[in-house]
Design brief:
alpha/beta; Aspartate Aminotransferase, domain 2; 4-stranded antiparallel beta sheet; 15 helices; 13 strands; binds pyridoxal-5'-phosphate
Length: 414
C-alpha cells in the first residue's frame, strides 16, 4: 500500500470518514432491526412504471440518452421540474435551475463555491451529517446554533449573539445552512415566523441561505409552510436563497438525481463548479425521470409515500409510548413529515454506549452525537421510521425500551 499521507491535500486531510456510516455497516446484519438508516420505503417505488419509462427512452431516444449532455441539465427534465415546482407555487425559469447528481452533490458544489480553509458556515445543532462532511472537506468549520425550545427553528437570539461574537472575533462566515422541512436528524419543522426571521437576518447580514429541502414534499400532517426560497420570491426577491431538492425521498434515491434552484448568477457559478466534478448529470437517468414525470404519476407516488410514512410514524410514536420508561426526561419529537424522529434520554445516558447494548439486543439507531460539528449532545438518538416494517417497529422499539431501562438502572446504581 503506497504511503501518500504527506502528499494528500490539506482538504483531503480534513475529510473525515463518517463514524455513522461506518457504524451503519454494523447495523446492517440481517437479524438486527435497524432504525439507523435513512432509507425510503421500497414498497412505494413504482418499479413497473419506471421500467416502462426507461423502455420508452430506449425505444425512441436511445442515441441522445447515451450521449454527453449539457452541464445545466436535460431540457425536457428542466421543463418538468418547472411544472412540478409551479404546482407548489414556486416560479422558475430554466436559468434558475441546475440538475445535479442528487442533493449531496449540490452540498459539495455550494461548499466548493463559497468556502476557503478556515471559513465558517452557520448550521443547526444538530444538523445533517452529510452537510458537515461537505463543509469539512473544504477545511471550513461550523458555527452551531441551537434550536428554540419550541423546536420551530433556530433560537434567533442565540443566532444573533453567536454571529456577532464570531464577526467581532474575525471569523469569516460564508453562508447559513438549514433544513426547514422535517430536518434530518430531528424532524423539526420551521414555523413561518422563523423562516421570515431568518430571511430578514440574511438580508441584514448579506449572507446566503442554503435551504436543503429533501423532505419538503413528505408532509403527512398539517399544512405546508412556504419555503424560504418562496418567501424571498414573494417578498424582496433578493435572490439570497439557494434551494436544494432531490428525487431521493419522493421517488427513488438510486436515480441520484436532484436540482438546485437559485439566482441565475449563482447557477452559472454552480455550473462551472459542477463541470470539474462530472461534466454533466447522467443523461439517460435525466431523460428517464423526465419521461416518468410526463406520465403524471409522480404525484400519486408522493401521496402514497406520505400515507405510508404517516402510518409508520404513528406506529413508532405509539410503540415509544408503550415501551419507553415513563419519565419527564425521556422525550421524542412527533414530526409532521420526513423520515425521522429524535429521542432524548436522561443526561446520564450516553447513546454512543447505549448503541452497543442495543446491538446486543439486536436493535440499532444512530447516536445523536454525530450530528453536531462541535460539543455534541450525548443523550439523543435519531430513529428512522420509513424503512422498517410495522412489525419491526413494534419489536424494535420494545427491545430499545428494554435497553434504555437497563441503562437507566445501571446509571442509577453507579
Ligand atoms: C438533509 C439532507 N440533505 C441531503 C441529503 C442527500 O440526499 P441525496 O443526495 O440522496 O439527494 C440527505 C440524505 O439523506 C439529507 O437528509
Amino acid at each position: 500500500m503506497p504511503d501518500f499521507g504527506s502528499l494528500f491535500s490539506i482538504n483531503a486531510n480534513n475529510m473525515k470518514a463518517s463514524t455513522i456510516r461506518e457504524l451503519l455497516k454494523l447495523t446492517q446484519k440481517p437479524d438486527i432491526i435497524s432504525f439507523a438508516g435513512g432509507l425510503p420505503a421500497p414498497e412505494v417505488f413504482p418499479v413497473e412504471d419506471l421500467r416502462a419509462a426507461a423502455n420508452v427512452i430506449f425505444d425512441t431516444k436511445a442515441k441522445q440518452a447515451l450521449q454527453y449532455g449539457t452541464t445545466e441539465g436535460d431540457d425536457g427534465l428542466r421543463e418538468e421540474l418547472i411544472k412540478f415546482e409551479q404546482k407548489q407555487g414556486v416560479e422558475l425559469k430554466k436559468e434558475n435551475l441546475l440538475v445535479v447528481s442528487a442533493s449531496q452533490q449540490a452540498l459539495d458544489i455550494v461548499a466548493k463555491l463559497f468556502l476557503d480553509p478556515g471559513d465558517y458556515v452557520i448550521a443547526g445543532r444538530p444538523t445533517y451529517l452529510g452537510a458537515l462532511q461537505a463543509i469539512q472537506s473544504y477545511s471550513a468549520k461550523v458555527l452551531g446554533i441551537p434550536f428554540s425550545e419550541a423546536q420551530d427553528g433556530f433560537d434567533m437570539d442565540a443566532l444573533r449573539k453567536r454571529h456577532a461574537e464570531a464577526v467581532a472575533g474575525g471569523k469569516k462566515i460564508k453562508y447559513i445552512y438549514v433544513i426547514p422541512d422535517f430536518q434530518n436528524p430531528a424532524g423539526f419543522c420551521w414555523s413561518l415566523e422563523k423562516r421570515k426571521a431568518l430571511l430578514e437576518f440574511a438580508y441584514e447580514t448579506g449572507l446566503p441561505i442554503l435551504e436543503d429541502s429533501p423532505y419538503r414534499e413528505i408532509r403527512f400532517l398539517g399544512e405546508a409552510i412556504p419555503s424560504i426560497y418562496q418567501l424571498d420570491q414573494r417578498g424582496a426577491n433578493k435572490g439570497v436563497v439557494i434551494n436544494l431538492k432531490t428525487f431521493s425521498k419522493i421517488l427513488v434515491p438510486g436515480a441520484r438525481m436532484g436540482w438546485i434552484m437559485a439566482d441565475p448568477a449563482v447557477i452559472s457559478k454552480c455550473v462551472v463548479a459542477k463541470q470539474a466534478m462530472d461534466l454533466c448529470t447522467n443523461v439517460f437517468t435525466q431523460m428517464w425521470i423526465a419521461e416518468y414525470m410526463r406520465t403524471g404519476k409522480l404525484d400519486a407516488v408522493i401521496r402514497s409515500t406520505r400515507e405510508l410514512y404517516k402510518v409508520k410514524r404513528n406506529h413508532m410514536v405509539e410503540a415509544l409510548e408503550r415501551y419507553m420508561p415513563k419519565r419527564a426526561d425521556i422525550r421524542w419529537t412527533r414530526p409532521e413529515g420526513g423520515l425521522f424522529l429524535w429521542l432524548t434520554l436522561p443526561e446520564s445516558i450516553d447513546t454512543d454506549r447505549l448503541l452497543l447494548k442495543a446491538i446486543e439486543k439486536k436493535v440499532a439507531f444512530v447516536a445523536g452525537s454525530g450530528f453536531y460539528a462541535d460539543e455534541p449532545e450525548h443523550n439523543s438518538m435519531r430513529m428512522n421510521f420509513s424503512y422498517p416494517s410495522l412489525e419491526q417497529i413494534e419489536e424494535g422499539v420494545k427491545r430499545l425500551g428494554l435497553a434504555v431501562k437497563e441503562a437507566i438502572d445501571e446509571s442509577e446504581r453507579r
